[in-house]
Recover the amino acids of this structure.
């Protein structure tokens, strides 16, 4: 028995340690797939002090920018750092350089389906006003109050036009879902300036390419952003192009908050020029909550 325990301990020590740092709370699937290959541990922010971060061969996290500075400094240059949900690659890359982390990898392709699911959930929430209904049921009046006023303005998906800004795997997945809801789909390729490159992501045949961003904004009932943050896309949705947006349109952004001119978007909301927006992330005093 003692010999068996020593053998087990030796094998455990030889197997690499992989830490999911404040991400992937349920690691059952990862443990099954990597059984005998690596040991997987989930570390929430509340357990940073006792976590074996320095001993890990690989560290999975949403974004370096989301970690406390103390946790960032415990990462080592030889570790493989996998960012699963970074919307600001430039920020994470700068942080990695500052911390001396040379093995930073952004993993976005496998998240395409999840991003598309999130966007569809946000779109349905805006159209069916489920966030307002949920807030009402949790209020003091609950189900006793009338929900009829909250239902005014609900819209059907069928027949609406979705405009997608960017050409990515998540954009293609969203287009497929939207067509299944009987929406029309338009898209604008930011990098291609309206032209299709040979190696770019292929949209479903029913989706129609627009030559300019302004044309897409003018024709779309819903706009969703799916472009990476670059020097060319910082505040790609700004006061100038928002002059062309279709009155009563909805805006959805699950990418970097820097793709939007927050002040310009909020001004349109206040004026009632757009019907609403849903943000998966926000910065600054302009936004006090994710739903506006």
């Amino acid at each position: 028995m003692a010999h068996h325990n020593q053998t087990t301990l030796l094998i455990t020590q030889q197997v690499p340690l992989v830490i999911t740092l404040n991400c992937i709370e349920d690691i059952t699937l990862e443990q099954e797939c990597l059984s005998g290959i690596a040991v997987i541990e989930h570390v929430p922010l509340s357990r940073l002090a006792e976590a074996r971060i320095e001993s890990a061969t690989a560290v999975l996290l949403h974004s370096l920018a989301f970690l406390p500075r103390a946790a960032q400094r415990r990462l080592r240059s030889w570790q493989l750092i996998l960012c699963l949900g970074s919307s600001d690659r430039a920020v994470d890359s700068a942080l990695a350089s500052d911390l001396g982390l040379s093995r930073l990898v952004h993993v976005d392709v496998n998240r395409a389906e999840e991003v598309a699911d999130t966007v569809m959930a946000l779109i349905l929430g805006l159209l069916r006003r489920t966030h307002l209904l949920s807030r009402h049921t949790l209020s003091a009046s609950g189900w006793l109050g009338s929900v009829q006023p909250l239902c005014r303005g609900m819209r059907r998906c069928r027949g609406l036009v979705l405009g997608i800004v960017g050409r990515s795997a998540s954009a293609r997945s969203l287009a497929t879902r939207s067509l299944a809801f009987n929406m029309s789909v338009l898209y604008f390729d930011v990098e291609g300036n309206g032209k299709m490159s040979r190696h770019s992501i292929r949209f479903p045949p029913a989706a129609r390419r627009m030559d300019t961003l302004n044309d897409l904004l003018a024709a779309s009932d819903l706009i969703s952003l799916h472009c990476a943050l670059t020097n060319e896309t910082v505040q790609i949705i700004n006061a100038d192009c928002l002059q062309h947006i279709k009155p009563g349109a909805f805006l959805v952004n699950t990418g970097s908050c820097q793709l939007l001119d927050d002040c310009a978007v909020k001004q349109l909301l206040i004026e009632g020029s757009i019907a609403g927006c849903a943000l998966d992330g926000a910065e600054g005093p302009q936004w006090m909550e994710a739903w506006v």
